[in-house]
Each structure stands twice: as structure tokens, then as C-alpha cells.
């Protein structure tokens, strides 16, 4: 019976597609769709998708040789599974008609209804809504993939698929709606999240911490990364793709996209150097691994701020985030929490630092959407709203993930056996090996 269920869900998807082919064409008079903006968002969506294979290399190079394939597959499979969920009702949960400020109506865009024609999303009126839906899909894909670094080398693949399905529906979609839908509760509070500091990185980071605590430690914690070259390659792909992540979130080929592009470059470069120099300050040798981790932390931290802060302030965000995350890695190690690839210190904490510093340095001269300037400019409203949102979103993601882990464990045991863990997940879960 267990072998029938996975394929059976695909049969159900086929039946739903037959019953709801979504052939209706929406025609809007005086359409404002712009070919330049559309071209840029098409490219941005492709760049963001590239980040998931980049993450696979980034994580895959950090684990032991016997777990490289399984770790990389956990990222790759998100591109398949999350896409199906998104097309059927996931996009609607995140961006459908508002229900209480916390979730979208699953019937609004059910089976991509309303995607034909020249309809647009109100916040991005110059690109087709189908493109907006696919652009947002790529964010939904990479978020659960980020979590995998926390429980690498010890989770069963079938249980992992159940968990990320529940995560996208129960945690990611509500946070996306609350933050990015005009009627969302966080959006109405004035919370700013340009490209996913709260929605993507904080949610993944807190879920990662919950996963590490719930699954417990690996039997063999000390290990040498299998492929530093994979980590470097993955970092390059992530940095490249992140321009679509951040500059693409401007919604078009415009001056805001250029500003976000510049702040993204600057923060990541500053964080990479800050990580190296901070390691030297602690008496360590500069390492390729440290440079790569630092660069990614900078990308994470600038994500919520990219379209709201100036280029000089992005330097501060990158450096501060790198130092704090570096210190949190040390703290995590001392506490004995087996977050295998430091997802919480780097993505969770990096996202929180970026969120708070957004409320410190945001200014209306960068983006007219900033109605209250940051704390640095003498205004407190935005900073207060971000503090409240940080606590609320963190609690929701952490305790929600714990609940989903428990439910998943009841449906299918999460941890592999000690024998399979020692053998390695590549062979025990997939019958493959390097």
C-alpha cells in the first residue's frame, strides 16, 4: 500500500487537471504589460530556479562522500514536488483572495485558473500573472530545500517528501500571504521584505533548528567535507542566481532593479571578506569554505533589504550579518546542536539580522513603498513593526515546524536506522554512490 500512495497522488493530479483544464481567457482592456519588464522577470525566474541546483552543490560538497547524492537530491526533488503543489493550489494559498490576512483562498487560482490572457497581479501590473506565479514558484521551491542542510545525513527520503509538502502548505504559504499579499497581516503592519528574508530565510532557518532538535544528533558528527570544489561551484551559482532573486523582485527592468542588483553584489562581497577576516582575527587560517559561507550569509541578509536601502548601507548589512552568523556557528557547536550544515546560524540568523537592519536603514528615497523611514533616520515605527513581526514569524515557523515533524514522524519515521546512517544515505535510500 505504501508503494502505491506516491504514484497514486500523481494520478489524482492528472484527474484534477482533466476536470479543471483552466481554458478561460482573461482579457483586460488597456493592458499595461511591458515587454521589457516581462523579459527581465522571465530571466529572473530562470535565475532563481538555478539557485536550487546551486544549493545542491553547496550542501552536497559539505557532507561526507557517502551522503553527497542524497543531499543533492533533497534539493533537486523540490523542483518537482513543490511545482505540482504550487500549480494545483499552492499559489492560490499564497496569493489568492485574502482570508483573514493569513492565507489565500485555495480556489482563487486553483489549477492556475485565470492564467491565460493579459491579466496581471496588482502589485506587478506590467507582467502577465502567469509569469508572476512562476517567479514566485521558484521561491517556494528553494525554501524547503534550504532546510535540508540541518538534517543532512540522517533523514529518510520518503518522510522528507511528506515534511516538505506539509511545510509549504502550512508554513511557507501563510507567511508569503501575510507578508507579500496587500491584505496580509504583516503587509498591513508595514513590514518590509523585498525578496524573502522573512518568508524564505527565517522560515527555513527556524524550521532547520526545529529539525535539528527533533531528529537529534548523528551517530558520527565529526566529518570532513567531501568536495570543497562543489561548495565553491554552488556558491557561484547561488550568487549568480541571487540577482534574479533580489533584482527580479523589483518586478521589472527599472531603476529599483538596478539598485537591488548593486546592494546584493555589495553585501555579499562585504560578508565574504568579513567572514575571512573575522576568522583570521580568531587565529584561524582563511578558508575557501569560510569565504563561501560568508558570501551566502551576505546574500541572505541583504534579501529583505535589497530594494529598500542604499548601497553604502548594504556594506554594513553584509559585514554585521557575517560576524553575527560566525559567532552563532560557534555557539551552535558549543551547545551540541547538530544542525549539520549550520542552516539556522547562516540562513535563520542571517535573515533575522537582515530583517532588523532593513528597519534600521530603509529610506523612501530608495523605494517609494517605504512610508516610514528606518531607525537610523530617526523614525521608530518601522523598527517596532519589524520587531513584532520577527517574534511572531519566528514562533510560527519554529513551533509549526516542530508540529509538522511530529505529524510526519507518525506517518513515516523520519530517521534512518543506525545501520543505514553508517552505510550512508546514498546507498541506503537510493542505491547509488559516487
Textual characterization of the structure:
54% of the residues are buried. The longest helix is centred in the C-terminal third of the chain and has 31 residues, at 381-411. With 434 residues, the chain is mainly alpha-helical. It starts with a helix and ends with a helix. The strands form three sheets. Strands 1-4 form a two-stranded parallel ribbon. The protein has a two-stranded antiparallel ribbon with strand order 2-3. The protein has a two-stranded antiparallel sheet with strand order 5-6. The radius of gyration is 21 Å and the shape is globular. Helices cover 66% and strands 3% of the residues.
Task: Offer a quick outline of the entry.
The protein is built from 15 helices and six strands.
Average pLDDT rating = 96
| Radius of gyration of CA atoms, rounded to a whole number | 21 Å
Which parts are unreliable, with pLDDT below 50 for 5 consecutive residues or more? none
Order of helices and strands: HEHHEEEEEHHHHHHHHHHHH
What composes the largest sheet? 2 strands, parallel
**Beta-strand content:** under 5%
Tally the beta strands: 6
**In percent, how helical is the residue content?**
55-70%
How far apart lie the N and C ends?
32 Å
Lateral arrangement of strands in the main beta sheet: 1-4
Class by SSE composition: mainly alpha
